[in-house]
Amino acid sequence: MASWQWQARDFLFCGVCGTLLTFDSVRSASCPLCGFKRKAKEIEGKETRYIVTAEDIRRELKIDPFEEVLVQRPVITKSCPECNHSKAEYYSRQMRSADEGETTFYECTECRHKFTD
Ligand SMILES: [Zn+2]
Ligand SMILES: [Zn+2]
């Protein structure tokens, strides 16, 4: 079945940080980035019993969860006061004091300068 082949391939990636595991020997593989280790035996037999989630592994290894949040911000036409580039990403943030309301921030797509209106 195609589904377990996909999972087996998925198993070659670090469950913690998603980096491709390096085989130290025929018996084990480890993550070059965070040192997470996995036995080759587990990889072979995994089609029947791999249901461990990244969350479980983090808990087991006591690693703080770090999520890479890739949010695509909308880009609008706005000229940058720093470099005069005409496009900026924008996002709004609730200010700490309620009466300030929401402030819209712009970030130049060219020089990453952040500015407000
Ligand atoms: Zn890793
Ligand atoms: Zn700029």
Automatic annotation (TrEMBL):
Domain TFIIS-type, residue spans: 76-116
Locations listed in the record: Nucleus, Nucleolus
Keyword Isomerase tagged: no
Pfam families registered for this protein in UniProt: Zn_ribbon_TFIIS
Listed Gene3D superfamilies: 2.20.25.10
Biological process annotations from GO: termination of RNA polymerase I transcription
Chain residues that bind Zn(2+) 1: 14, 17, 31, 34
Record-linked CDD domains: Zn-ribbon_RPA12
GO cellular component labels: RNA polymerase I complex
Binding residues annotated for Zn(2+) 2, in chain numbering: 80, 83, 108, 111
GO molecular function: DNA-directed RNA polymerase activity; nucleic acid binding; zinc ion binding
N-terminal signal peptide: 1-28
Keywords, sorted A to Z: DNA-directed RNA polymerase, Metal-binding, Nucleus, Signal, Transcription, Zinc, Zinc-finger
Function: DNA-dependent RNA polymerase catalyzes the transcription of DNA into RNA using the four ribonucleoside triphosphates as substrates.
Family label: Belongs to the archaeal rpoM/eukaryotic RPA12/RPB9/RPC11 RNA polymerase family.
Name the UniProt record assigns to this protein: DNA-directed RNA polymerase subunit
Originating organism: Panicum virgatum
